[in-house]
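Usage

Read records sequentially. Each one opens with the input sequence:
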Amino acid sequence: MRRPTWTDLFFDLVFAAAIAQLSAPLDHDFSLYGIARFTFLLALVFLAWFGYTAFSTQFAVDDVAERALILAQVFLVAVMAANARGMLGGRDAAGFGAAYGGVRAILALQYARVASGDADPGGPASSRPATALVRPKITGLCVAVVLWVGAALLPVPFRYVGWA
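and closes with the structure output:
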């Protein structure tokens, strides 16, 4: 079993701060819309966190490039948190969506590094057949990046259709 590193704990702390930002509007708006908004955004933040956690559990990559990618993800999660309050209201939605797409792009890059052999996968899935299984995951993440970032560039009514 892999032990959590300081980087993992810092990563989790940033997500805890993002969730606190997401829940702040519930102080003033505890309506059905407010709860639905929080649930939608929480699901996205959870998926971003779970993607990294699943990767780091499956592949114990620990090199300078991996740490740089993790720091980039931390920055993008902070951008998501900063844009969370006005996510469904207009311009902030573009920042949140683009940052979420960026987090997914970095995750695809992390998987691509393992699949190509640029990074020593380590961990429980360090065999070559296991790394071959990540290719469909990389494809799915790349499609998600195109949808989220592409929709972030659209005007407001069409942006939400692109994300749906």
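Summary fields computed downstream for this record:
- The mean pLDDT is 84.
- The chain has one domain: 6-163.
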